Amino acid sequence: MKAPAEIIEGDRQDILLLCDHASNAVPADVDLGIDPGLLDLHIAVDIGAGPLTRSLAARLDAPAVLASVSRLVIDLHREPDHVGLIPHRSDGHLIPGNDRGDRAARIARFHAPYHRLLACRIRAQRPGLILSIHSFTPCLEHGGTDRPWQVGVLYNRDARAARPAIDFLRACGLVTGDNEPYSGRLLNATLNRHAEANGIPSIAIEVRNDLIHDAAGVERWSHTLSELANSLRNSLARNMAPAT
């Protein structure tokens, strides 16, 4: 069986990178009943997020965990009881094979091992900061409106990393969404479970996918996000330092 995630090791253990939607891979024995061309669209994979995570991991010398299955098979960034865990429709496209999918079997095969891997990794080497890398479309294909943000910072209740991250990105001149294009208070499953529940500062970083669809864009954003990561590490360390 294919591993639930690609693991990139790094010497810098204070930051952990995650990428829930890095892959558009569909196992040979899972029939989604769709045109294979749909696997190249955002409904199947966060375009550019995987390459960006790998580049950022190399630049920071930080470990990263990248999921190895398409969200059309199962969305690892959803709770097991979420209605969209195994999508039957995504951005107007029907996924007829999922009408026949065994929900419990897919959770056991893909979802549970991925989250078990994350839990074990964080328990063994607790990071001081978790960054989850995603991308979003400039506009949904069906019924969407233009999304003006270049990047969004998503978070739930813990804003220790979010507030300085938003300030940093806006100071760089970037159009930055505060819990946009959607709210981390509604969709934050992985970080809720592995970061916030463990008291670890975290954010999800959503980069608009037309900005990271090629190597040049990935390189630019890898540089920006590495600077952000270093800034957050320093600000968090200052805030957690004991008073003298």
From TrEMBL:
Top-level taxon of the source organism: Bacteria
UniProt keyword list: Hydrolase
InterPro entries: N-FG_amidohydro, UCP029730
One Pfam short name: FGase
Keyword Ribosomal protein among record annotations: no
Keyword Transcription: no
UniProt GO MF annotations: hydrolase activity
Protein name: N-formylglutamate amidohydrolase
Organism in which the protein naturally occurs: Sphingomonas psychrotolerans
